[in-house]
Every structure is written in structure tokens, then in C-alpha cells.
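Q: Sequence in, structure out?
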Amino acid sequence: MGSKGFHPFKGRVSRHFGDSLAPDDAYLSYYDIRLTKEDVDTLKNDWLTDNTIAFWEEYLEREELRKYPSSHIVLLRPSMAFMLMQTENPLTLKEALPNFSKTTHIFLPINDARNVSVAEGGSHWSLLLVSVIDGVAFHYDSLSPSNYNEAMLATRRVSELLGKNLRFMNLDDSPQQENGSDCGVYVCIQMRHLLLKRLLSANAREKVSMSMGGKLVDAAGGRKEILKTIENFRKEGERRRSHEESRSSSPFGKKGNESRSPPRIDS
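A: Exactly. Output:
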């Protein structure tokens, strides 16, 4: 997996955002995530890149999970989930992965890519939610059963990593997408719903249903919301950069690299 992320539609470029940027140019730096122009363009109506899904996870961690300091929920990045699935002995990855000793739940974006040498490999996303405390792995596939085997493999790897038996549940009542490109959006929307409405809002003594059956997913609205979130951060990053530049203005002007650096949010 490369920095460009999974994406079978490489080369399609929208004219609506940052016209002066090439597809691989940085569009926004958000903490540990560096979104490119291509990531933003494909978000409009194509297949979401792993970079976009990683941004959404970073956003949920920074803006939502931090409000619950006592929670022990991990949103594993697509690159980490992919690496875990491709590694015969997951215990060799312990140093690269988060410490799961206190973790109650793990979210894993699942992709059907198999070739580790192809950065834009794969054609479908689904979501695996591992409830460590219950010993169950819930699989949400918007084109069921497309990623059944991949999710089973990820469950087995996590089980080996944790040293704990996990029961795999493929939730057949998961909302189904209506086209061939909304799978990543379904992953993002369902991840947020399960995180905020099921896990973080539940009473400790309450039995929570993890089924998404009957839940309507507005994929078009989800795309717009994620895009709006990115655009708002980009504007804020531009405002901060402009403020910094005005405070440290130099008669020699800006260096080329500085003027081309993306708007940044890191605090």
C-alpha cells in the first residue's frame, strides 16, 4: 500500500477543487493524514481511497473520541488493517500496531486487495468491528458477501494477535449500496454511527444491538458531509497560514516549498 492509496480510477481529475493542483499534490495536512487532490476529487462520486478513509478515522478520533477519555476504542487505519491481513504471523507486527491490552473495540476497514505491490489494488471496502470484550467480530458488507473471506481472514489475524478466540458474525441485514462506488462511504457512515450511537452512548449495563438492519445510509449526503469537513479544515488551515505569514513577513518573499505546502491542521 502506497501513499496514494487504493484507487482503481487513477487519473480522473475534478475541476471543482484546487484547479492549480495536480492529482498527487497535497490538498490538506490534517494531523497525521496528508490528503491529495486526487483523494478529494474521487470523494465526489468515485471509489474512496484508503487515504480518505484514514482521514475520516483521524477526524473521528480528534473530534469525537477525545471527548471520551476513558474509552479504549481503536480505529485501525486501512494500511494497518491491510498489513495485518497480509502477515502470516501477526505477532511480528506488535511494535507497529497500537497497544491493544486495554482495548474494548477495534474498527477495521477491510479491502479485497491481495497484491501488496499494487498501491491502487482492490475494488471493495467493508467494515469489521471487533468487540474484544464480547469476543465477537461483526462484519458489515454493503455488497454482501463480497468481502466475506477477507473479513474472516482479518478476524483470524486479530484473534491471533490478541490471543483470544473471536466469533465471526457476517451481518446479512447490513444496508446495501445501490451502485459500484459507494462502499467506502458506507464504511465511513456506519463506522461513525456504530461509534457514536452504539458504543459511546451506551449505558455500561445496557445490551447494545450491533445490527445495522433497517438503517438507511445516505451515501450522497455522506460524500457531501465528508467533503465539507475537508473544505472547512482547508479554509481554517489557509487562515492560520495567512496569519502566520503576516506575523513573519519577510522582504525576501516566500520560498517555493513554503508557498506550495498544503493548509495544515495539527492542533
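The chain has seven helices and eight strands.
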